[in-house]
Amino acid sequence: MRDLFIEKMYELSKKPYQKFFKKGKAWEVKVNQLIQLPNDSLGFHLGCFLLKYNFEIQPKLEDHDIIHVLTNTGISVVEEIGMQYYLFGNGKRSLYLIMVIVSGTLFYPTRFSYFKQQYKRGKTAHEFYGLDFLNMLSIPLTHIQQTFNIQ
């Protein structure tokens, strides 16, 4: 029940977040273009991630799925919250991130050790959340992970 509630909160907040808080242009990249990139590239892995979960590229939210790929984070509600803890540890600060962390901690207090672990993982990585990922799609995934110490 709480997973459903959190997912509904996300769906209701996604459009206003895209419109009012996300700056820049949406990527003009299609999934079929991503999977044509070299097999070891970030873009190819993003394309595979999107296909695996039957997702579409969300305009202005492309970085979110890139973070999933880079950090090898799943898509369950708890993993989504954990990814926000990871980003918090990596230095990202936003009202949306804080709202996810606070609500996630309140809804899933028994998972706090997991959230703390994700925060620590984010702390050990070099700051990467603000990179221009669109221009990095052809770079090998493992090269990016090693360069930024993404575990």
Kindly summarize this structure in a few lines.
This protein has about 150 residues and is mainly alpha-helical. It is built from 8 helices and no strands.
Question: What does this entry look like structurally?
Answer:
This protein has one domain (2-18, 40-147). The mean pLDDT is 91. Helix content is 60%, strand content 0%. With 151 residues, it is mostly helical.
**Helix count, per DSSP?**
8
Global mean pLDDT: 91
Determine the strand fraction and express it as a percent band: under 5%
Largest sheet: none
Number of domains: 1
Protein name: Coenzyme Q (Ubiquinone) biosynthesis protein Coq4
Organism: Flavobacterium lacisediminis
Keywords: Membrane, Transmembrane, Transmembrane helix
Question: What keyword list fits this structure?
Answer:
151 residues; mainly alpha; 8 helices
What's the topology here?
Elements: H1 2-21, H2 31-34, H3 42-52, H4 62-71, H5 77-89, H6 95-107, H7 112-124, H8 141-147
Organism: Flavobacterium lacisediminis
Keywords: Membrane, Transmembrane, Transmembrane helix
Protein name: Coenzyme Q (Ubiquinone) biosynthesis protein Coq4
